[in-house]
Amino acid sequence: MSMQYDMPPQPEPSGWATGGLIFAGTLLVLGGIFQAIDGIVAIANDNFFVKTHNYTFNLDVTAWGWIHLIIGILMFIVGLGLFSQAAWAGVSAIVIAMLSAIANFFFIPHYPIWSLVIIGLDIWVIWALTRPGVIRT
């Protein structure tokens, strides 16, 4: 005789959770577009951004441009995936938001106010996606 264990039904996510998911997806799509534009500008014109001297993480601005372009494309794709409420998109969004925040932290000397705004939005995306009931597995 085998015993079956029924999983308790998962409650429907609240309106706040669903709204947070949609807003996080929107922020990722918009942030991805802005990151990609930021990357394209850095690749096309090194002199647009402030060049700092004696910076510990002294990468060429073009290298930072490629980093921002790649992260921006990934943010855009994952942001679109969030609208389908897929579990892979939720986990990927958290990871890509962390990478974006880290990349922008290192980019602060080149474009400080924009970098701090993006870091704040990335943190909000992570917070919104870690609320109970937002990401369904």
Polypeptide structure, described:
The protein is mostly helical and 137 residues long. It has one domain (23-50, 57-129). It is 66% helix and 0% strand. It has helices at 15-44, 61-82, 87-107, 112-129. Helix 1 runs antiparallel to helix 2 (61-82) and helix 1 (15-44) runs antiparallel to helix 4. It is elongated. The relative contact order is 0.19.
SSE arrangement:
Elements (H helix, E strand, L loop, with lengths): L14 H30 L16 H22 L4 H21 L4 H18 L8
Secondary structure class reads mainly alpha
Through-space gap between termini: 30 Å
Roughly what percent helix? 55-70%
Q: What's the helix count?
A: 4
Q: Radius of gyration in whole Å, from Cα?
A: 18 Å
**How many β strands by DSSP?**
0
Q: Give the SSE order as H and E letters.
A: HHHH
User: What is the number of independent domains?
Assistant: 1
Beta content comes to under 5%
Brief summary of the model shown:
With 137 residues, the protein is an all-alpha fold. The chain has helices at residues 15-44, 61-82, 87-107, 112-129.
